[in-house]
Amino acid sequence: MAVLLDTNILLRLVQPHHPSAHVATRSLRLLRANNEILHIAQQNIVEFWAVATRPVAANGLGYSTEQATAEVDALKRLFVLLPELPLQDAWERLVTDYHVSGKNAHDARLVAAMVVNGIESILTFNAQDFLRYGEIRVLDVTALS
After folding, report:
1. pLDDT of residue 22
2. Cβ distance 10 to 27 under 8 Å?
């Protein structure tokens, strides 16, 4: 099975002292032990960068662009980066069909990347954000660990 990682999983991996870091790490080990192929998308990188380089006072990680670059490079070594195929049509269909609005449009872009690349599952801390999409299977990280 191919699994896309939600950005919140990636953010926990670079924050070893975060209360949820061990849950994310344990879930990834379990998936790898079951020979699952773990993927990230370009959208993950954009979202990760936004949080990583945002000031700590604004709920970010406060990384310099050099630190963020190093972390993104590490993520691309650890996980399979999906090709940046045209997603616009799939994204527009999803946001229209599921009446997506506001910040959930970012999640719809992850789902579009999954649909276009044939990825069937997503691992996330926020299962509720993805349950509306009948095209995918949602793996709740807290249920796996």
Report:
1. 95
2. no
